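Researcher: Batch entry, complex prediction.
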Amino acid sequence: MADRSQHPQQIMENQTCYDLNAAIESWRQELAVQASLTAEVRRELETHLRDVITGFRQRGLNDEESFWLARRRVGQPQQLGEEFVKADPAKVWRERIFWAAIILLAIRLWSEISSTAWAIFQTAVTTPYFINNYHSVSPFPEWIRFYLPLPSNIDLYALLFSPSSRIAFNFLSLLPVLGIALLLSHGRLNKGFSWVQFFFQSRHRFLFVSATLFLFYFLLLANSLLRYESQPNGPSATLVIMANLMSSLYPAILIAVIAWLLPTQNRKTPKHA
Amino acid sequence: MYKTTMLAKDMVAASAKPLLLSILAGGESYGYEIIQKVRALSGGQIEWSDGMLYPVLHRLERDGLIDSEWKEADTGRQRKYYFISSDGKKVLKTERQQWLTVHNTLSKLWKIKPVTI
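Model: Structure tokens for the complex:
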């Protein structure tokens, strides 16, 4: 069998007729499909596969034979996934809840940002519009209104800022989040979003960043609440403060869930006896 | 070569924990090396499938019996090394007593000289 080895001295990473690295890469992609295998587990299994391949090569097998025997020995990716599920059935669910919490938090953050932007835009646009004791002046000249597919008596601004268009805006503003989630789940955008991993690398960092953002949000909130003057028939200032605190409870719970389920890695330092 | 039925499946499963803890009590190791060691020590009679080893290792780690660390091996490749924790040593002690109890009971029945626990 030894005579079948093409280049016994060659190191594994080198190119031969059979592209070993490409074979390992496709094996890695098969592993990545398994939901129960985390990135760290896949990395560990890959080093194991490479060890087994090296073992076979040292016994004189060529790259292709070594790869296929090692692959057989390490196990089918689907089989490996099932073994890991058996070892920790709750893990798959922990990960699902973790990602659900992240998506909910992202949607919440995004809707907060977009509705604030929308409110700023609205004030900026309508302030000059309602000049002279709320007497509305159409912002568009007659020749533009002529070409708009609207009856001439409908005010475009009124339509744009009506409650129903507000609902439509809320719905449309979620589309980018869904689009990004879809692209991420298909493995696209991985490079563009690698910086996000920075925040999730450790529990402390994640909590620190979230707490800072929360503090910033509360300062903005306090700033606007201090200027709040209760109308005679409107809710009292205390009620408004309470309502705002309650509404910030939801993202706080999401952050706590994410921090709790955050996969910890390499947190241990060796404790040699 | 894959999953030899030298030792019955339930025996392999039951003995995995004491074997892993005992190997790691002798010094840190990694997956591939552990499998080689078990094969050599058992004279090829205990053949662990690679896919079965890692879930067991990870379960022991979750239970706090072993710890792990990524380190660079001599080959320059990063490897995940496992080592026994202080809790693991305590568990190994009780495991040892229990296995020896089974061993001694069988030894008496089979008229083999028992070992001291």
